[in-house]
Amino acid sequence: MLQNWAGNHTYGASRVRHPRSVEELRDLVGSATRVRALGTRHAFTDLADTTGDLVSTQELGQDIEVDAERRVVRVSGGVSYGVLAEQLARGGWALATMASLPHISVAGAIATGTHGSGDATGSLAAAVAGLEIVGADGALRVVSRGEPDFDGSVVSLGALGVVTHVILDLEPTYEVRQDLYADLPWDVAVEHLDELTSTAYSVSLFTDWVSGGIKQVWLKSRDGVPPADLWGAAPAVETLHMLAGADVEAVTQQGGITGAWHERLPHFRLEFTPSRGEELQSEYLVPRTEARVAVERLRALAPSYAHLLQVGEIRTIAADRLWLSGAYDRDVVGFHFTWVRDVPAVYAVLPAIEEALLPLGGRPHWGKCFAAETAALAPLYKRFEDFRDLAVRVDPQGKFRNDFLARCLELD
Ligand SMILES: Cc1cc2nc3c(=O)[nH]c(=O)nc-3n(C[C@H](O)[C@H](O)[C@H](O)COP(=O)(O)OP(=O)(O)OC[C@H]3O[C@@H](n4cnc5c(N)ncnc54)[C@H](O)[C@@H]3O)c2cc1C
Questions:
Q1: From ligand 1's centre to the CA of 300, what distance in Å?
Q2: What is the pLDDT of residues 237-269, one digit of tens each?
Q3: Per the confidence metrics, is the pTM higher than 0.90?
Q4: CATH code for residues 64-173
């Protein structure tokens, strides 16, 4: 039985199909009753599932075509960011950001608003300049930035069709160094939160929420050197994993050694193959203006959830215009939770966390575990109804709909 990466969801689809060409995919989608795209299976829920056929994008080609003049790359949707990044770097090109894990597919990542960290850096989806999508009728359509449907079509939750190719913005290659610090007390971290997240191109703060404060600060600096003094936090003298006791072989080079962007921006190395994950994840994207209140609320709640937590991570993401993006219309701070893999226990603590964060405007990460359903989600997105209208227009028979879309968008 096919399961997601974390092993907490067994896909209920009747079959998994592996089209080898766009033509084969068009026939398959055009003649299907129910069908959904499957990427690298890193989502933590039934998001990708269907009662019909799952369509894996893994054999649909590995195109990576750079257009140097337009500074874009056209990439097959099933290619992982890690593979894409290596090829781009070899050719002297770069992406603005990477998620913590490079193994995730391009189309699957952008469909859920996946992001890295950086005050001035948008999500992976924000770099999308165009999409090639096989729609419900089996026709291939191209949607480009600036066109009326574009802002609704990137973070699509797989509801608009199967993305065959993605056009991504590029920039010339650059170098990054990664420096870690340990132990920043909460009062200092909260007082200097905005300064802290602006000390480097990409900043991640790791905490267990119950002990004194931020346990590790990961600074990924693109220009210049990190500050000599980080409000008294101790510079790390050895390589650290964000999970106590975990194998440091898995993490990207630290210790201030400069290297290529794609070998520092992800937390984990591409050559380290993550086994089936013994974890679940949740994340809430809260407006930056509410960050301090969110921290206070999560600290107050921590005794109720800390026993399930492997680690918490705080990151920042710049605003974009994509309708279902966690960062739609505002800069956000992401409060991420890596949980132990205990599904009932984790889902039992999520409602209290959501009661604390959703009223602040916190939006759950679409690819991770959350409890909220349509009534709670709709007010968080100004263009929620527009997305629903778009989904109904491009997929009137509901070919791409599933339980997740029924539960979270009342699309059934
Ligand atoms: C270890 C780990 C680390 C992670 N790190 C981060 C992180 O740093 N930042 C972050 O924001 N998230 C992170 N995530 C979450 C992850 O990025 C999302 O769950 C993402 O959607 C996974 O992509 P996938 O290709 O595995 O998608 P899948 O799980 O296969 O599918 C997810 C959704 O994408 C759709 N989809 C996939 N391919 C296509 C396609 N070709 N066309 C249309 N729709 C498609 C599916 O239908 C489904 O709706 C992490 C997850 C794991 C397991």
A1: 31
A2: 999 999 988 889 999 999 999 999 999 999 999
A3: yes
A4: 3.30.465.10
